[in-house]
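Same chain as my last thread, 183 residues:
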Amino acid sequence: MADTKILGICGSLRRTSLNMAALRAAAANTPDGVELQIADISRVPLYDNDVYEEGFPPVVETLRDQIRDADALLFATPEYNYSFSGVLKNAIDWVSRPPDHPFTGKAVGMLGCSAGMSGTMRAQYHLRQVMVFLDMRPVNKPELFLPAAGNLFDENGDLTDDVTGERLNQLLNSLATWSKKIA
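reply #2:
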């Protein structure tokens, strides 16, 4: 039984997403006492206040429950136009609606893979602003930016870089420790 349950949320829907590959690598190599499950946000509809006024769609209610049940969250995001993905923003917008949004006080970490050299720095900075506004508690270190990420995974999406594996493990350890500290 895991002492710390982390829910991974990927901001990319691409079948060959390097961000999803990074989450899978993290889930396969969690530190002792840590469990990482990955949420599926692919069916979350576009946010529509008219729909919201009728109640949360079942897929959104499921995601809210998963977040509520987790000790911590780990977002993995690509960078599009200097920001995090619209897919991730849409899921956050749905989950953050009242009543009782489950982000409040939640420990959260982030990582990002990019083909270029930024490693999603700008996307993560923007995502951090949203996290703070929603009263999440981001872990400060380590930051995990993965530039030229195509070189870190094989053709099956399996992590081949030991240093990145160690950095993922450090992030999970830090997030687990942080979630216990602020609980």
